[in-house]
Amino acid sequence: MKCPFCGSDNTRVIDSRPADDNNSIRRRRLCDECNKRFTTYEKVETIPLIIIKKDNNREQYDRTKIEGGIIRSCHKRPVSVDQITRVVDEVETEIFSREEKEVPSTVIGEIVMDKLKDLDPVAYVRFASVYREFKDVNTFMNELKKMLDN
User: How far are the Cα atoms of 61, 93, 142 from residue 131, in angstroms, in the given order?
Assistant: First the structure.
């Protein structure tokens, strides 16, 4: 590992521990040349995931899109940032555990809705109304009835 301060290749690990998410390792390093310390993170490299959109276009997986949708649906709701991050992590874990190179966006949407249903019913309905593209009040009411029957 190169030192970010002097560019030397002579660095060593002085401390290792799991990072906050337990999916990566945080390493404290020391440069033998300039004696400065810095932190690096080591994470498992995953295969690139391609998302198949509703119009059959394909794009690379982007965690921030899921996070953004959940944040918008939880706007002004009693849901913490930690809870949102946990939901995004759970969705991501479920997607990547499928070990598929391509995943339809509809599958991701259903997983997100399933997680939101347990987290906050209002956030669930908000997300579903955009995701399922409710055309009128009746479709919206049908979704509410389904939720209330469960």
Answer: 17, 21, 15
The domain ranges of the chain are: 11-43, 50-149
| pLDDT tens digits for range 24-41 | 899 999 999 999 999 998
Strand partners, 38: 29
**Which residues lie closer than 8 Å to 48 by C-beta, 6 or more apart?**
60, 61, 101
